[in-house]
Amino acid sequence: MNILIYGIGGVGGYFGAKLAITKHHITFIARGAHLEAIKKNGITVKSILGDFHSRPGLATDDLKKIPAPDLVIFGVKSWQLAEAAKNLKPYVKSETIFLPLQNGVKNSEILMEFFPQNQILGGLCNLISFIESPGVIRHSAFNPGITFGELNNIKTSRIQMISDLFEEAGIKHLIADDIHREIWKKFLFICTISGLGGLTRVPIGAMRESEYLYEMMQKTAHEIVLLAQAKGINLDQNDVSRVFRIINDQDPESTASTQRDLMEGRPSELETFNGYVVQEARKENIAVPVNTLIYECLLPMEKRARKISAVKNRK
Question: Which positions fall inside the Ketopantoate reductase N-terminal domain (predicted)?
């Protein structure tokens, strides 16, 4: 198979490095010093499960050079997904399969603006990893895994083919019985902690210790469940309880990637997290006051970060 990993950050870098160990042709889309280091030395993953190193068949920032992919795995942030899909569109084929792994619940919808629905899967991943230095990914928590499936939840031959691919690469994976529920389950966790973390600028332990902030997290989660149920997603109070067991088990110094982006003045996934909840709740006529508070308080910061980023990209 020709497999394209679009975005070689923490997610794409880890899973791309795993896939590059296999017999398949793996292409990395990366940029800058990270790309140059990968071209020269391959990619190294420093992992709590054991370090490893691999080389892709091709690493480039020029889509004109890629072989037409059979499978595209998107490793960019959710706010970058539309641009990535737009850039990639001229270089794929009618049989190409697209697997988004971004946080958020509308990634498949975004891809449908550019590609036919029957080429798009649903997916998510669980890991904590980041670029430590050019060509080096640091994996610091969790046994990384990918959950994926057809949008209609049918166990097709191509789903089994991708499962076999992940098995060959040694990637923990799960074919979901209900991929939409699985995506919303992760969204319930990550959205509950990310925006409030960005607003308070403290790690999860400090939010747990504050009775007021802990209650705010609970209210955030309940509002997300209300929205999910309005959209026909099978979430309930048991899922909230599960999320808070995970929150309570987190290292007290943990921070979410979106929180770190907000704190460091980078464009973040705010719009696809709390912003999505606010906008969709308005359509469903659901009150989400806590998500609205978080979103509106962070929005000026987000707009400033995107403006600065746009200026830098034009230079």
Answer: 3-152
Phi, psi (rounded to 5 degrees) for 153: 70, 10
| CATH number assigned to the domain comprising residue 35 | 3.40.50.720
DSSP states along 182-226: HHHHHHHHHHHHHHHHHHHTS-HHHHHH-HHHHHHHHHHHHHHHH
Mean pLDDT, residues 109-131 taken together:
96
**Do residues 157 and 30 share a domain?**
yes
Q: Which residue among 177, 205, 224 closes a domain?
A: 177
Domain stop point among 152, 177, 202: 177
The verdict on 170 and 35 lying in the same domain is yes
Q: Which two tokens stand for residue 191?
A: 């959205």
Same domain, 161 and 214: no
Report helix, strand or coil for 55. Answer: coil
Strand segments, DSSP code E, in the chain are 2-6, 25-29, 43-47, 52-54, 58-60, 71-74, 97-100, 121-133, 136-150, 172-175
Confidence of residue 71 (pLDDT cuts 50, 70, 90): very high
Q: Is the pTM of this model over 0.90?
A: yes
Neighbours of 268 (CB within 10 A): 28
Task: Provide mean pLDDT across the span 278-306.
Answer: 97
In whole angstroms, give the CA distance from residue 128 to residue 291: 24
Residue 278's contacts (CB-CB under 8 Å, 6 or more residues apart) are 288, 291, 292, 295
Q: Are 216 and 276 members of one domain? A: yes
Summarised one tens digit per residue, pLDDT across range 29-70 is: 999 999 999 999 999 999 999 999 999 999 999 999 999 999
> Mean pLDDT of all residues in the chain?
96
CATH number at 297 reads 1.10.1040.10
Task: Write down the residue that tokens 């929150």 correspond to.
Answer: 247
